[in-house]
Known about the structure:
Layout: H1 20-32, H2 37-44, H3 47-50, E1 58-64, H4 66-70, H5 80-90, H6 106-114, E2 118-124, H7 142-150, E3 156-161, H8 167-180, E4 184-188, H9 195-205, E5 210-213, H10 219-231, E6 236-239, E7 251-257, H11 274-285, E8 289-293, H12 298-305, E9 309-314, E10 325-330, E11 336-337, E12 340-341, H13 342-353, E13 357-361, E14 370-373, E15 390-392, E16 397-399, E17 406-408, E18 421-424, H14 428-438, E19 443-447, H15 457-466, E20 471-475, H16 477-480, E21 488-493, H17 507-519, E22 530-535, H18 541-549, H19 551-564, E23 572-580, H20 583-595, E24 603-616, E25 619-628, H21 631-646, E26 655-660
Parallel strand pairs: 3-8, 3-9, 4-6, 4-7, 5-6, 7-8, 10-22, 13-20, 13-21, 19-20, 21-22
Antiparallel strand pairs: 1-2, 11-12, 14-18, 15-16, 16-17, 23-25, 23-26, 24-25
Helix pairs in contact: 1-2, 1-11, 7-8, 17-19, 18-19, 20-21
Bound molecules: adenosine-5'-diphosphate and zinc ion (2 copies).
Amino acid sequence: xxxxxxxxxxxxxxxxxxxxxxxxxxxxxxxxxxxxxxxxxxxxxxxxxxxxxxxxxxxxxxxxxxxxxxxxxxxxxxxxxxxxxxxxxxxxxxxxxxxxxxxxxxxxxxxxxxxxxxxxxxxxxxxxxxxxxxxxxxxxxxxxxxxxxxxxxxxxxxxxxxxxxxxxxxxxxxxxxxxxxxxxxxxxxxxxxxxxxxxxxxxxxxxxxxxxxxxxxxxxxxxxxxxxxxxxxxxxxxxxxxxxxxxxxxxxxxxxxxxxxxxxxxxxxxxxxxxxxxxxxxxxxxxxxxxxxxxxxxxxxxxxxxxxxxxxxxxxxxxxxxxxxxxxxxxxxxxxxxxxxxxxxxxxxxxxxxxxxxxxxxxxxxxxxxxxxxxxxxxxxxxxxxxxxxxxxxxxxxxxxxxxxxxxxxxxxxxxxxxxxxxxxxxxxxxxxxxxxxxxxxxxxxxxxxxxxxxxxxxxxxxxxxxxxxxxxxxxxxxxxxxxxxxxxxxxxxxxxxxxxxxxxxxxxxxxxxxxxxxxxxxxxxxxxxxxxxxxxxxxxxxxxxxxxxxxxxxxxxxxxxxxxxxxxxxxxxxxxxxxxxxxxxxxxxxxxxxxxxxxxxxxxxxxxxxxxxxxxxxxxxxxxxxxxxxxxxxxxxxxxxxxxxxxxxxxxxxxxxxxxxxxxx
Length: 666
Ligand code: ADP
Ligand code: ZN
Ligand code: ZN
């Protein structure tokens, strides 16, 4: 009935918002991750676009009118400021925005407009133009040059280069080549904290629009960034995980820096891997993809072995910079005070005396992870999770690191009223307190989620480190990842032992990566760097392989182990997770999901099991693991399971989700 049809009010977009390539990527991702396509698209499209904002950006620019162009040399004699503006325009062939005009006074512009010499127009964002060539004051190493030459017009490349070997330099050259050809590059970084540093380096190199995309942008900023990329205005786009969906008018290259980093995998909702999608996007767009890391993931190394990726190596640091030296401190015969052995204290002291900075890594924030009653052995636990509460000294609270709940520090044991409560174990805050008393004259800078909560505090602390004064830097992975510190001469890992008896089969891989990442922070400069590792397992074979034979030998051992045990990357995995208000509801639900209908003989189903931390934020969690050496069969089976599961009545009482290529089984 025509009368019931409503009139279209406005044509929002004259062409589809998403270019074909990105749409294809979304649809593929929806199928691969078994996630509703609507939600995938919602993740790919900035929220303001979803609310109807135009996808094509217009900016206001000033142009010379005919009269303005014809103006003789001698005119505007009495208005030098206006003359200056006219001169600026005469030097370029295109319009200039208010921003381009920089310091020019607004009154000069207004006067020129009144004289009809200048006019203001709204114009569409234009693709970038690039004229200045990137200059560096050194020549590339042979390895760098070889790597650059090997990157072709398509294909996936794994650039494995020890920290400080000049990977970023390789990125810069490859991007420059694209810029000259009018093509855009997308650089994915694992953490939002790494974007300012990358931005700085790229801005110094290229006079071109560089757009940054990450989760802390306002909706408006995100839309603007998206428009810069989509219109071709941005020459380089630097972003975290979700920017893999950013449209580019003229794509030329995708780089995934620190490709092994687990932050590229989304941990909830639409659980995609931005690294894996980058590889796919490269195929779709027919452009090369470069995965860079000092410590590549076993998956990527395996893909090299299968000849799916080409392997590029940077084994040397630039001349004059030596590789850091690793040493193990055997804790067996050492006295520990607040987690520090005497031997370690000596080494730290030596480095401080030599005016170096010392970096201490511990991936646990707070003061101590355990609060224990000395009398009855009561331990403070979270009421909502199967987890202990961490004591935070600065706020005098107990906090759960899994659900965020905070309670006041009890002044006596709730079970036996004993006043003596022991703080057991080590957190970054405790290290800070301890070292403050031992090195009262030394600057101590702690970097973790707690010390960087305030806006800009992270940048400020990093700046303080870069000033290079002798200092002790204490931090979690926030400090260990990617940053370039010029004056760190010693990196320390105080507590790594829990990785050796973790239930997560990826724990050893991650330990190897973190040791080399932390180690790589030291010895950036011509000064020699060293790394000290405290452990009760000084002869642990993997640890020793890593230190004496290097990452590749270490990775090979792990890969052999994974093959023998039928684990990824030799087998593919998917997980069905369920959570509910009772343990049995979640388990029963997955039990039904596991046992309904016929199961492919090529797929093994394990479980259901309660998750390692079964209760979290008040909900009980369970999981079911599907595993197969055939991806095709795994996906077919998973699809069947999901369809069957969707019909289950008990599904109404649980929240369930699918995780393809899970990186943890919690
Ligand atoms: P990575 O990204 O592998 O950690 P970078 O690209 O940041 O390494 O390089 C580390 C340092 O070495 C930087 O200060 C960089 O400017 C410098 N550098 C890179 N390549 C060369 C080279 N060929 N000669 C001299 N210095 C270089
Ligand atoms: Zn007690
Ligand atoms: Zn909790």
